[in-house]
Write a structure and sequence with these properties.
- By secondary structure, the protein is α/β, with parallel strands linked by helices.
- It has one domain: 3-Layer(aba) Sandwich (Rossmann fold).
- The strands form 2 sheets. Strands 2-1-3-6-7 form a 5-stranded parallel beta sheet, sandwiched between helices.
- Helix 4 links the parallel strand 6 and strand 7.
C-alpha cells in the first residue's frame, strides 16, 4: 500500500511513518503544500493522510487535487481542532475516508490506513481480484 503523509511537523509525520512501515506500507512524506501537490502529481497513493492546516493554509485544495489526479485515493484528515467534528467534511470532500485528532495513537491511524488501502481498487488488483 502506498501512503502519502502531508504534515508540516516532521516529528509527527516520522512517528506516523514508522507505524505505517511496521504494517507494510510504502510511505512518502510532504512537509509543505507545494511538496504535497508535486508528490500527488507524480505518484498515485492508496491513502493520503492530510493535516487540515499545513503552512498555515487550509489543505482542502490538496484533497480536491488528489481527487482529480487520483480519484481512487482515500483521504484521512488529521486535525488538532474540533472543527468538522460534526462530520461535515464528508459533504465537502468526496474522497474523505475519515477524520481523526492529531493525538490519535499512531497504531490506530495505521490500522485505519490499512483498512482503507485494503479496500482500494489498486489493492484488489494486487490480490488478483477483478
Amino acid at each position: 500500500m502506498d501512503v502519502l503523509i502531508v504534515e508540516e511537523c516532521e516529528d509527527l509525520s516520522n512517528l506516523w511513518q514508522k507505524s505505517l512501515i511496521r504494517v507494510g506500507a510504502k510511505v512518502w512524506c510532504a512537509h509543505s503544500v507545494s511538496d504535497a501537490f508535486s508528490r500527488i502529481q507524480s505518484h498515485r497513493y492508496d491513502v493520503i493522510i492530510l493535516d487540515l492546516i499545513c503552512d498555515a493554509i487550509n489543505t482542502m485544495g490538496i484533497a480536491d487535487f488528489a481527487a482529480y489526479r487520483s480519484p481512487k485515493s482515500q483521504v484521512v484528515f488529521v486535525t488538532n481542532t474540533s472543527f468538522f467534528s460534526d462530520g461535515s467534511i464528508f459533504n465537502l470532500c468526496a474522497n474523505a475516508a475519515g477524520i481523526v485528532q492529531s493525538h490519535t495513537p499512531p497504531e490506530d491511524l495505521a490500522a485505519m490506513v490499512q483498512h482503507y488501502a485494503a479496500n482500494s481498487p489498486k489493492a484488489s488488483r494486487l490480490c488478483g481480484a477483478q
